[in-house]
Amino acid sequence: MDRNVSSPLNSTSLPTPLPLNTTADINATVKPFSVFDGCDHQVEGILFDLTLQCINVIVGIPTNLLVIAILIRNRKEPTTSDIFLGCLAFMDAYFGSMTPVIFLNLYHWQSKDVWSAIKFSYGVKDTSGPLFFSCICLDRFVAVLFPVMFGQLKHIKYRISLSVLVFCLTFAYSAAKTVGGLPNFEKVFTGEILATFTWMVVCNVCILWALKKSRGAGKDEMHPMKKKAFKMVLSILCIIVVNYLPPVALFPFEDHYSEDVFRCYVQPVGFAFLNISSTIQPIIYLSRLEKVPFLSDACLEKCCPCFSTQKKTPPAQNPPA
Questions:
Q1: pLDDT at 1
Q2: Stated pTM of the model
Q3: C-alpha separations of 321 from 316, 317, 318 in Å
C-alpha cells in the first residue's frame, strides 16, 4: 500500500476542511498537524523502520558509493547490467541520505514542506528499486534464454533508453505521491510491487532452470559466463525474498487488520524490509567480486569477512630430507 496514503511516517495529509456554512469552533474540531498521523502512542513500527534506515546511513551509503566508484572504474569493460546497477546504487544512496532529515523533522522541525521532500524520496525508493531490479532480471533473462537476440540488443543505447523510462516513471510516481489526494493512488504501489515481484521470480526461476539444463549429461562445470549469470541470479533471488516478500505477503490482507494496526504496525514493518534493500543490494554485489578495488584485503576482512573471497593457499612445504 502506498505510504503517501496510509503510512503515518510519510503522511502529510491535511485535516478535512469544515463545510463553508459551519459555525463550530475551528480550534475544537480541526486537529493540529502531526507527523505521526494518529500513531503518536503506537510508534514501535515506525521506529523499527527508522532503525533499519539508520543502517542505510551507516552501511548503505558508503557501500553504494563504493559500488558507483567500482562501476566507473570498470567503465572500459562494463557488463550489460552495470548501468542498471549504477542507477540503483545512486537512488539508494540518495534515499539513505534522507534518513537524518526524517529524524529531524519527526522530533524537531515538524514541517509539512520537509515532509513533501521526504515523501518524494519514499516515492523514489518505492519505484526505482523494483523497476531497476526488473531491468536486471530482464537483461539476464534475455542473455541466458535468448542469446542471439541478446547479441543484437547488446548496445548500451537500449539500456540507456530503458533507464530513462524508469527514471520518468519514478519521478512521475514520486511527484504524484508528493502532491497527494489522488483517488485510489495506494493501489498503484500494490499493483507495482505484485507485478514486479512476480516478474522477477518467474525470470529467475526460468534462468536457473535454463542454466542447470545447459550443463548436459556428465558435465559438472558450467561455462564461466553462465556461472557468473547464475551467481547474479542467486543474489537477486536473495534480495527478492528478503526485501520484497514481506510487503507482498502482508499488504494484500489489509482488510484483515484494524485501520490503526495496519497503519501503525503492519505497513511500517513491511516497508522496513523494502527500505533495507538499500544496504543489502550493494553488500551482495560487493561480495560477488573477486577483488574489491580501493580497499585492502585486511580492511575488508576486518569490516566484513564475507567480502574476502580470495582463497588462501597453504605455503608449500619443503620435502623431507
A1: 47
A2: 0.79
A3: 15, 12, 9
